[in-house]
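fwd from M.: "can u put these together and see what the complex looks like"

so here's what she sent:
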Amino acid sequence: ELKVEQNPLFLSMQEGKNYTIYCNYSTTSDRLYWYRQDPGKSLESLFVLLSNGAVKQEGRLMASLDTKARLSTLHITAAVHDLSATYFCAVDMRDNNDMRFGAGTRLTVKP
Amino acid sequence: EAGVAQSPRYKIIEKRQSVAFWCNPISGHATLYWYQQILGQGPKLLIQFQNNGVVDDSQLPKDRFSAERLKGVDSTLKIQPAKLEDSAVYLCASSLRGVGYTFGSGTRLTVV
């Protein structure tokens, strides 16, 4: 069974600092997604990574995928308060196109 | 384009009652998913439809949960009878070809 593990589960950062969230998964997949969820809201798509070595950047967030290591990272550069949210990675099950989610990383950025 | 529509937004019921949720996916999206998100956890897939056929319902508690997508467009998810542990947000998502998923706003269910 596919397992998706994120770490850390909780992250408290100072504004202006950098940090990385890790997402490990247990089976072959070449599609990985990162989502953001604000409290009481639905999931907002951030990145779709479709191949080994894929790197995507949007503002202060950059995501990468290493399918051989079964690892994706979400790097935060110079964090700002507006980035406070829960971030989920999700891995596409290759056989039937459904997604399995990690437990989420709850990020708090403090002034 | 219009997003994934879900209703109701909130529902409070007593245990052992029944409840139904509705989802209308993005037009043309053949694949529809129902996820359960318990507070503090990641979403868990309950069922996946491709058009009006079930692709994966391995994690659906079939003794109390049922779902249908009769005409390959909108879908309903039903719980009967509800238990306290069913309190969660139920998210519907749709996808065109399994790449790129759009989520609805969800239905927050509280079972008391």
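replying to her w this: The mean pLDDT of chain A is 92.
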